[in-house]
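Review form for a predicted model. The reviewer records the input and the model, then writes brief findings.
Reviewer: anonymous (R2)
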Amino acid sequence: MEILKSIQEVVWFILLISLGVGALEGYFYYHFQYYDRKWFFPAALAVMPALALAVFGQLLGGYTFQLWVYFLLAEAAIAAAFRYLVQGRHTVPYLLLAPAFVGLALLLVYPFVFEIYLSFHDLKLTTIMMWKNTGRLPFVGIDQYIKVFTTSPLSEVSFWALLGRTLLWTFTNVFFHVAGGFALALLLNNNIRWKGVYRTLLVIPWAMPQVVAVLAMRGEFHSQNGFVNIVLTKLTEAMPFLTQLGIGPVQWLSDYPLVTCTLINIWLGIPFMMVVILGGLQSISSSYYDAADIDGASYLQKLRFITVPLIRPVMMPAVTLGTVWTFNNINVIYLVTGQSGGTEQADILVSALYKAAFTYNRYSYSAAFAIVVFALLFFISVTYLHGFDAAKEDR
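Model under review:
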């Protein structure tokens, strides 16, 4: 019975999405097809706001005159854009893109705009009932942004310490991702037996669900039965002088949580870089290397003057993605340390942001914090893209 109920819910969801897409396509088709008719504006302003109010009125607080005015103004702007700007051009491409565009707007644009709104107001446990009852919040201007830089999102670590730790975390991970991926790609780019098998085995950490991979590796760093400490114990038994160098089993998860997270994330990220770089290496024509062999170039010279310059345009987008993913990677931090409000030794900016919002309930502060993190990532991405454009011009 439960299975039938679940199937029924899925079917209703599919029908609802289909009806929504159909209504959206009909809406845009009307604007594309009849934009030049005399009755286009009167019909659009009379029918479209009323339909929008009927559909969204209950969700947005009931059938109110204020909502109708908003829908009327929005429809007037859209109809004017179709009459004077679009004028029926590129109908099919726009109709195909419309559902995806509206879906992204609902899933990304609206939350982002609402987050900006929260960052200039004061939403927390003491004001949440005011917001629920009146729909209004105290306006505080840029006070939340000032607090981001002057107060700690956590109880022990300041924003600037978290920023430094995050930059170190990002640089260390991306460096070893690129170095390890590049080394493995160079090995797999040779004519060796079982190359497909090796490539499949090496890509498993990245291909499997991250939760499974992280939790599996977390067990390997267990203080007593973990593989890492077992290996260290065997090494110190075989070579006692290692103990004099400070090498031996340690409490990884409690004493070195950030180091543990870094090692696990490096293991997870190398396969992605390996696949990307290997694809770039295989796109380089062998004629470059044949000419270098004729000129008597060594392996390191071919690597420096042929491989690295030609692989750089392929690596730059991958490094940009890897930097953004690593900077925002709360999954590894959260799953390895197993905490929502525990140790702060492994926290980076995004994990501190999560705690500020859902442990300490500082919602507006967290919204401003998120905007600051977004600005940092935007700056990093633009910097990488400028480097990518320069690499393409040099190629």
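Findings: The mean pLDDT is 83.
Further findings: The CA atoms of residues 271 and 377 lie 23 Å apart.
Recommendation: see findings above.
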